[in-house]
Amino acid sequence: MGRERTGGQERGTETVREDRGPVRYGPHAPWPGLPVLPELAEVLAAAADRAAPEPGGGSATLREAACAYWERRGLRCGPDHVAAAPGTSPLLLALVAAHGGDVLLPRPCPASWIPQARLLGRPAYQVPTPAECGGVPDPYALLETVRRVRAEGGRPRLLLLSVADDPTATVAPPELVREACEAAVAEGLHIVSDETWRDTLHRPHETVLVSPAEMCPDDVTVVSGLYGALTPPAWPVAVARFPATARAAARRARTLDILTALGAFVARPVAAAAAHALREPEAVTGRARRAAALQARVAAEAHRAVLATGALARPPQAGRHLYADLGPLRSALAARGVTDSLELEEYLSRRLGTPTPGGHRFGDELGALRVRLGTGSLLGTTPEQQIRSLTAPEPLALPHVAQALSVFRAALDELR
Where is the Aminotransferase class I/classII large domain (predicted)? Predict the structure, then answer.
């Protein structure tokens, strides 16, 4: 991930070399492609004069709203079992730091996970996922990885997973989640379940999503970034739900210490908007439902375009992205100077005019020609176009959506 590229900046006659590999060039979460919900903007604006900072871990109001959110999903908890932070990255960093030992995670995994473990000096071991989904490790591969790590003198203690996954946009079947969690708990691993995308299911009445916390309540900490479905990505808020055990209480206290040391406090106006969103008034839930239905249609069309080229991709089930394997097009890509995922990232980002991170950002091998394709950019370039996409009965027939999909298809078709 540290390969150098020649950048386009120049000082006189000197070309400045720009390294495209490091973490600072890594991807943000998939862009929603929709304007801020007016009701949330009003709540934030009404709280804009609050000068005092939120307490570490979030105010009681924010934590109580998070408890109500989880209770509606069958996960009871009290405010003393919740912590909030300005985004999933600082929250996960604090959680990993609060646990001792080595970290296990699926391959591929969210772009920030491996850099965070490295930042803390923690060994991170990736475990293959099964053919049908990403986000959750294959149970047998997990057991073998734990055995191997211990044989080499390691101390595997923590498993990170995501039932509704970034980058693969898949949802793990409940039976796989159970088997993986039972295997992890039997080996003494604590589980951190990132459920940021659980409210973005494309077909919520057909797709069954079960939280690991429902299966192993004493051994799972749940994390949710509100940018998945409830708040804008520019207003970072994430919440964590800890088990109701003495050990978890100690880990929560340690997590709060770390967040405080980092200065990772949620801004008061953002906390007010987040608490409002977590209470899920109709305006918020209605926007989330419509956005998920819109992304389902656009992502399905993008998936068809990927398959039409001969490339591979699992059908997207959640989120606003899909994960494509362009390995079958390797020869055609090589003719264009694309031989790895970093070059593929640069090529498609230029061709599509939007960030298109390669699989190396998510822990896949550099030589594998995989890429995460966002679908939010297909909804329009102005707030007016985006709202039309959200409210139109046939969004794919809108001229701006049709044009964006045409460019998307053309960029892929020329690789055949």
Answer: 51-329
